[in-house]
Amino acid sequence: MAETAGKQECFVGIDLGGTKILAGVFSPKLKCLGKTKMSTKAQRGPEAVIQRIAKCLRDAVDECDLELKNVKGVGIGAPGAVDPETGNVIFAPNLGWHDIPLKKELEKLLDLPVFVENDGNICALGVYEAELKSKPSHMAGVFIGTGIGGGLILNGQLHSGHNRTAGEIGHMVLEVNGPKCSCGNRGCFEALASRLAIFHRIQSGVKDGQKTILTDILRDDLTDLRSGDLRKAVRRKDKFVERIIEQAAEHIGIAVANLINLINPDVIVLGGGVINALEDEMMPIIIKKAKEHALSGTSKGIEIIASQLGDNAGIVGGAVLARTRTK
After folding, report:
1. Tens digit of pLDDT for each residue in 234-259?
2. Predicted confidence (pLDDT) per residue in 7-27, tens digit
3. Which superfamily does CATH assign the domain made up of 10-124+312-325 to?
4. Are 225 and 218 in contact (CB under 8 A)?
5. DSSP E strand boundaries for 81-124
6. What is the rounded distance in angstroms from the CA atom of residue 3 to the CA atom of residue 173?
7. Cβ proximity of 97 and 91 under 8 Å
8. Is the pTM here over 0.70, yes or no?
9. CATH of the structural domain 134-307, one choice from 3.30.750.24, 3.30.1160.10, 3.30.420.40, 3.10.20.310
């Protein structure tokens, strides 16, 4: 049962993903008071998804025995290019969204101040403040989920770039003639190592006759495949799944090496559902590959770590954003 918060003020962080919506209610000191999760159902269109976000938030607040009037602000991370000033989602390929006024529509439904950022930026904020206690000067976050998001903290501040879309790590091109990405390009990091990319490679292999334990755990079409199923398969020594996970980890390592070469941060943090489920299997490969591909000497002293916030990074970061913007 969620811990009640009396009638104190609180902040809500929302992580809007391609497959799920997670809402968390936090005290001003970032203590999680309760959270609620529901599926995104992106195929129903933007209006229906925004209604679901509002419902998820209301359910989370109700779970804490609080009311909307206790909420001082809402921070939401959306997957894709976001204009944080207007709160519009410019382009979210995993949702099929173009120019959606997310802030405006949510504020209409909730009558609360809403602040919107890219989901990778939000996760980076959550990890930086709650997990690393704002200590490193420079941090890069890489979050492997349905897609791949990223966030950059430079000189202790979130780096947004000229068009406020910096940190789109998932759309670095790693293979010029690689698989098509949902953004329209080919060979993006996201098209090679995201959960969707891993699942697609497994499903294609099964169609081509590859044998895997996953078809025993699930149906042959693998439509209900989850990151946790990959962990089960790897731990049962499924060679086919092991090979695909290793390939994904190698691509992540190359992307990490690119970050080391480009911005040379103090810390690179890896998070998201795939890392959360397969940290033990993937992190040694990622670190080894990153050090192999970084310029000689450039990776010295740089920490490459897995976030311990797991799925909570986005909602913690959303609460950090709301708390910062309502001061």
Report:
1. 999 999 999 999 999 999 999 999 99
2. 689 999 999 988 899 999 999
3. ATPase, nucleotide binding domain (3.30.420.40)
4. yes
5. 81-83, 88-92, 97-100, 114-118
6. 45
7. yes
8. yes
9. 3.30.420.40
